[in-house]
Design brief:
Elements lengths: L6 H8 L44 H4 L4 E3 L6 E3 L4 H12 L7
Antiparallel strand pairs: 1-2
Bound molecules: iron/sulfur cluster.
């Protein structure tokens, strides 16, 4: 929770009320609906709902991301975004304003 690495996790965290923020602030839901488990989307199954799916061209739509070490022993992430991009996006776009859609 201190260093979330995946856009889906960013979306989950952005949809949780904060005890420390603006009490009137709207929650930010993950857009769309979960996919059918018997007919998953191509590539990354989260790509139809991921705000950053187009960052690496068509890769998220065509190629399943492999699980890779996520910087903390025992923690893995499956995302085509390079680690540096994920850190920058989380720091500048998600953690600042809670927007992950
Ligand atoms: S692989 Fe692409 S679509 Fe999947 S979570 Fe990462 S950026 Fe989003």
């Amino acid at each position: 929770l201190r260093a979330p690495q995946h856009p889906y996790t960013w979306g989950l965290l952005s949809s949780v009320p904060s005890l420390h923020g603006d009490a009137d602030a709207d929650l930010v839901p993950i857009p769309g609906n979960p996919p059918s488990l018997i007919n998953l989307p191509s590539g990354c199954a989260f790509h139809p709902r991921c705000r950053w799916a187009g960052v690496n061209g068509d890769r998220s739509r065509t190629e399943v991301p492999e699980l890779r070490e996520a910087g903390v022993p025992g923690h893995l992430v499956a995302c085509h975004l390079p680690a540096g991009d994920r850190e920058r996006i989380y720091r500048n776009e998600v953690a600042q304003v809670g927007v992950a859609r």
